[in-house]
């Protein structure tokens, strides 16, 4: 057992899972913590649960401050998604986050040399070719953000909730230090920007479906039986568990608490126009060593903005699919942004919930097809820039 929790803790966790309101969940988590012994093996878990409690508490206090129906109040923890993807702009103070918002979006922001001038999340829509991303400027990260210093929980909560992140650094002085500070705070709040080699996903199912472990990778320090036993100890009896890459029992436990999550990221290396920036860019590139894409830019001179858009698009692993009405020559407006590997079935679900039910066939126009258009079924795998006409019964 990675954390060696006593049975009482396992029972409490079941109550956490069953809680119906955020307040109840928070209270049950507090009770759960009392049963978690304090030793090195449980440090990560305790930190994570405390972070979750703090997030719920912030949210509840925020709602209370605002009152019902009022729109003023403290920083909003989560911002409703708009566009094809939500991207959090994260960085230490003064790197030019607001400048990026003002250069690429319609949002009203304050660009100023005064540090920590953005106090709450600011959303704005950025166009990249014919897709739209929602950028959200997060209040600056500082040392201790992950422990709640400043508006740390808001900033890191935004990163956790977004579909991807822009890690912004100022090239005019020590970008490596800035990047490492931000990465350390993200990691402390269990947000990773490099895809881990192993992955565990747990999909809870209704009672009676039993446990099904699908092993696509390797278990390093345990057997399938150990995985099943661990889940049962947490009272998880009905779920599909997918394991890929190299996985330890500890990673399975992480997945139970949904602690570690992965976010695609792009480094925006800003202020390329300033003295010393070119040399700093070179050392930054050596340091990152190809692990993340780096876009050199100057928000003030509006240079590198298209490259940033492309890097975001590529990192998210999305494809654009255009639709048209049967019989029409014209495509209908903006494309659908779908995950790479999406099928006609996914597209149909995105168009309308009845589309799958009433589906007859689809016609696909694409350069890669020897005969285009091609008549296809729901399982056809789409690619970027495909044009689709869906035919339904009604
Ligand atoms: N030379 C140069 N200055 C820039 C660039 N981008 C931003 N700045 C300047 O850097 C300062 C800080 O910019 P902001 O956009 O307010 O920085 P921020 O990251 O939003 O900072 P906080 O929200 O206050 O933490 C301002 O004086 C900007 O004019 C750039 O590309 N080149
Ligand atoms: Mg700002």
Verbal overview:
With 394 residues, this protein is α/β, with parallel strands linked by helices. The protein has twelve helices and 18 strands. Strands 2-3-1-4-12-13 form a six-stranded mixed beta sheet, sandwiched between helices. It is globular. The model is unreliable at 68-74 (pLDDT under 50). Residues 97-98, 117-118, 137 line the site of magnesium ion.
Descriptors:
394 residues; 5-stranded mixed sheet; 18 strands; binds guanosine-5'-triphosphate; binds magnesium ion
The number of helices is 12
Fraction of helical residues = 25-40%
Rg is 23 Å
Euclidean distance between termini CA atoms:
56 Å
Strand arrangement within the widest β-sheet reads 2-3-1-4-12-13
**Mean pLDDT, as a whole number?**
89
Strand proportion: 15-25%
Small molecules held by this entry: guanosine-5'-triphosphate, magnesium ion
Largest sheet: 6 strands, mixed
SSE inventory with pairings:
Elements: H1 7-18, H2 22-34, H3 43-66, E1 85-90, H4 97-104, E2 122-128, E3 131-137, H5 152-161, E4 164-170, H6 175-188, E5 191-192, E6 199-204, E7 211-215, E8 218-219, H7 224-233, E9 239-244, E10 246-247, H8 249-256, E11 261-262, E12 265-270, H9 277-288, E13 294-296, H10 305-316, E14 318-323, E15 336-339, H11 344-351, H12 353-357, E16 359-365, E17 374-376, E18 386-392
Parallel strand pairs: 1-3, 1-4, 4-12, 5-11, 7-9, 8-10, 12-13, 14-18
Antiparallel strand pairs: 2-3, 6-9, 14-15, 16-17, 16-18
Helix pairs in contact: 1-2, 2-3, 7-8
The structure holds guanosine-5'-triphosphate and magnesium ion (MG).
């Amino acid at each position: 057992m990675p954390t060696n929790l006593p049975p009482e803790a396992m029972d409490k966790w079941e109550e956490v899972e069953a809680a119906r309101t955020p307040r109840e969940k928070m209270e049950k988590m507090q009770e759960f913590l009392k049963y978690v012994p304090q030793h090195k093996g449980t440090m990560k878990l305790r930190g994570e649960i405390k972070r979750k409690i703090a997030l719920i508490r912030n949210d509840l206090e925020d709602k209370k401050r605002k009152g019902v129906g009022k729109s003023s109040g403290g920083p909003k923890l989560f911002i409703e998604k708009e566009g094809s993807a939500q991207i959090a702009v994260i960085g230490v103070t003064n790197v030019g986050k607001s400048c990026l918002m003002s250069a690429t979006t319609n949002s009203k922001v304050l660009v100023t040399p005064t540090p920590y001038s953005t106090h709450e999340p600011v959303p704005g829509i950025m166009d990249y070719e014919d897709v739209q991303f929602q950028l959200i400027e997060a209040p600056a990260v500082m040392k201790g953000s992950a422990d709640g210093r400043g508006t740390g929980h808001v900033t890191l909560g935004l990163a956790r909730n977004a579909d991807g992140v822009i890690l912004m650094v100022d090239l005019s002085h020590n970008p490596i230090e800035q990047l490492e500070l931000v990465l350390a705070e993200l990691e402390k709040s269990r947000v990773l920007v490099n895809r881990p080699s192993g992955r565990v996903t747990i999909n809870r199912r209704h009672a009676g479906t039993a446990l099904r472990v699908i092993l696509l990778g390797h278990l390093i320090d345990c057997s399938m039986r150990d995985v099943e036993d661990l889940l049962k100890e947490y009272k998880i009896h009905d779920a599909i568990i997918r394991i890929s890459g190299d996985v330890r029992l500890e990673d399975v436990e992480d997945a139970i608490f949904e602690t570690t999550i992965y976010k695609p990221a792009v480094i925006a290396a800003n202020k390329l126009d300033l003295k010393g920036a070119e040399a700093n860019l070179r050392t930054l590139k050596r340091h990152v060593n190809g692990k993340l894409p780096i876009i050199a830019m100057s928000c003030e001179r509006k240079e590198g903005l298209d490259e940033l858009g492309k890097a975001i698009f590529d990192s998210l692993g999305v494809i654009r699919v255009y639709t048209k009405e049967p019989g029409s020559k014209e495509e209908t407006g903006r494309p659908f942004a779908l995950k790479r590997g999406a099928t006609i079935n996914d597209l149909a679900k995105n168009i309308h919930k009845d589309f799958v039910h009433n589906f007859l066939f689809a016609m696909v126009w694409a350069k890669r097809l020897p005969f285009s258009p091609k008549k296809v079924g729901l399982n056809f795998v789409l690619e970027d820039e495909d044009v689709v006409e869906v035919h339904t019964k009604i």
